[in-house]
Amino acid sequence: MSRYTMPLTKTLNLQFGYDRPLHNVFAQLWNNSSDGEPVQALGLDPFITTVNTLMPAIDAMLAPHPGAALSDADRDVIRKRLVADGADRGSVI
What we know:
Layout: E1 2-7, E2 12-19, E3 24-31, E4 38-42, H1 51-62, H2 72-84
Antiparallel strand pairs: 1-2, 2-3, 3-4
């Protein structure tokens, strides 16, 4: 399983990765607090199985959090890391 952390704001981090045995991409929005609980998580969802289906879901997850939007460079990093780890990108990105 791969797992990467991308700081978004002073209080939020995005963790994303690929679970090779389950062939599943995932993303979690974490609060930078000591409670260790994710704010919101995506994954293990039959409709979010490729990098191309994960990206719009991440956008929707970040929408209620001002200042936490992904830049084009952030999107490229996420796509490239997940595809390099073996995730199915879906259609051509």
